[in-house]
Amino acid sequence: MATSLLERLEGFKQSDEDRYGFLRDLIEAYNKLEGELTMAKSDHLDQLNSRRLWQDKAQVAEARLKENQESAVSFDTLDICILDLTGKHSSGDDTNEARQFEEGLIRQGAVGGGEAANRLLNNIKAYVQKYDGAVHWKIIVRVYANLEGLLKKYAYIGFNEEERSLRQFVAGFTQSQPLFDFVDAGQGKERADHKIKEQLGLFVSNLQCKHLMLGVAHDNGYVPALDPYKTNMTTASRISLLRPIYAGREFQSLPFEIVPFDAIFRTEELPNDRPSYANQAKPAPYMFRQPVLSPVVQVHKPAAPKDLVQRRPIYPGPVYLNKDDERVDENLGSVTERAETGLEMRIRNGKLCNDFHLRGDCLNPRCPYAHEPSLEGEELVAFALKARQTVCGTGSRCRFRLCVLGHQCPHGGAHCPRAHTCYFKKLHRVDPRIDHEYE
């Protein structure tokens, strides 16, 4: 029996040890789970705080985005036009001249400047109509030129009217539109280049700028500045180029659309030399201010009085058109060699004022050209003929009654001996016979 009790005692002892081991394992598992729970709660709390933080940031960002979107409605969208008129540019084999404004506009001074600004504004508006919302765009124009260089150029080639009227033209252009500026960039094309390239980068990256028009395609130096945008069709569609007289060859690889605007700018470069008068053909001997009429259609005008040759001023006068509605100059008659010599003697003492002598009045109190004594008789006619040796930039489309320049070739027209070297070569086919008067 004692043995049986000992065996039972050992059984109880083993049972107690098993229970102790079980409880120890249970407590260790509990402690482990409690630690994991604590870590999980901490992680959960961190995630909760993080979510709340980012939720708050998202709400702030949404509020700011909504505010910006509402503010953006009041921001003006812009169309920027930048023109480089700073003379000739050479690059490699190219030597191209920037397009200048039409002489017919420049000769009108401040009035022509305002007209040029209005034409440019209307042409830009018509061109950008293909873009959504363009009707509400603000159009900004900046023109850069070397005014001193242009004045010297006009003086050298004998464009006296343009030389005198250019500064007034610039003032009229700038004053006509509040967002138009005509900037004198000074000597050296690099001065304008630097400004235009900086503005190109500024406006292309500006979301308010929906379109950018550049008058720079005559100068290959602008190609590197435009290269980064040629592969991005979204950006490239926002850029267009004013058609130059002669484009730099490197521009041919660029995808930007070309805009003509030929009614505002010259379609040919300024001449390099003064026009020659040595071989000037004498006009047929018609009465002064007596129009040369077509044999088919007559213009009914009273005959010129005998003393009309003494009349001052010559302009303004009627604008005569041929059957093709092209402007033709009325025949002023011939003058004697003595009158031509007398005029040349006057000019040697100082250039004569076209406005004073041909139009009868000069409004410039600081006019640098000679006024007195007034030209009369044949010398006045000779001076008018001399002025017509300079071709009008508007050509046969000119309707300006005060225009003193030539609208047809004075050397024979279609039979001109100077052929393609003549400054009037584009007008050689104009029929010189008057058909009717422009109303």
Question: What does the model show?
Answer:
This protein is α/β, with parallel strands linked by helices. Helix content is 40%, strand content 11%. The protein has helices spanning 2-72, 103-106, 109-127, 147-157, 160-176, 189-204, 223-226, 233-236, 337-348, 354-358, 377-387, and strands at residues 78-84, 88-91, 94-97, 138-145, 180-184, 209-215, 239-242, 257-259, 320-321, 327-328, 436-437. The protein has a 6-stranded parallel beta sheet with strand order 5-4-1-6-7-8, with helices on both faces. A 3-stranded antiparallel beta sheet has the order 10-9-11, with no helix packed on it. A hairpin with a 5-residue loop joins strand 9 and strand 10 (327-328). It starts with a helix and ends with a strand. Residues 89-94 and 275-312 have low confidence and may be disordered.
Given helix and strand content, the structural type is alpha/beta
Radius of gyration, in Å, reads: 41 Å
Portion of residues in beta strands equals 5-15%
**Percent helix:** 25-40%
Strand order of the largest sheet: 5-4-1-6-7-8
User: In angstroms, what separates the terminal alpha carbons?
Assistant: 151 Å
Shape: rod-shaped
Helices, by number, come to 11
Sketch the major β-sheet: 6 strands, parallel
Which parts are unreliable, with pLDDT below 50 for 5 consecutive residues or more? Answer: 89-94, 275-312
Number of strands: 11
Give the mean pLDDT.
79
Spell out the helices and strands N to C: HEEEHHEHHEHEHHEEEEHHHE
